[in-house]
Every structure is written in C-alpha cells, then in structure tokens.
Write a structure and sequence with these properties.
By secondary structure, the protein is mostly helical. Strands 1-2 form a two-stranded antiparallel ribbon. Helix 2 runs antiparallel to helix 3.
C-alpha cells in the first residue's frame, strides 16, 4: 500500500495536466481580481459551482487499491473519511 504522504506529494499524471494548468490560470485571475476589485467580488466571481460540474465529474467513487481506505479520492484532492474507515460518498 502506498504511503499517504508519498501519494499526496507524487507528481501529477499526464492526464491531469490540463486541469492543473487551468487551475493555475484561474488562481492567477482570482488573485488579480482581489487586487483590482477586492475580496468580496473575487469570492463571488470565483467561488461558484460550475453549472456543468455534475455532468463533467469523472470521479468514480472507487478508491484505488494502493491508497489507504481512510482517505477519499476526489477530483482535486484527498480528505480523510469522517470515521477513518472506508470512504463514504
């Protein structure tokens, strides 16, 4: 089983490159918005759910065998399950 720290600190996969680049660009735009227009406007602009989020979700809800079952795999990060046991959805 892969150590959690090794998994979190591992390099991104090639198929994650586009999402990573988009996230960096969005983060830079949000930072510029904070500087130019203030935190409130930036939060209202960049902390919205995308209308198509439900249709574009790729997470299957399955935990890879090499990741500790106390961690939930999501599209962008992992978080501990509430009870530390198997992931809940």
């Amino acid at each position: 089983m892969m150590d959690q720290a090794d998994y979190v600190l591992s390099r991104f996969r090639e198929d994650e490159a586009d999402a990573l680049a988009q996230g960096i660009d969005t983060g830079a735009e949000a930072t510029e918005c904070v500087i130019e227009h203030g935190v409130q406007r930036a939060m209202n602009t960049y902390n919205r759910r995308r209308a198509d989020a439900a249709q574009t979700r790729t997470d299957t809800g399955e935990t890879p065998e090499d990741v500790h079952p106390g961690w939930i795999r999501t599209d962008s990060h992992q978080k501990p399950a509430p009870n530390g046991d198997t992931p809940e959805r």
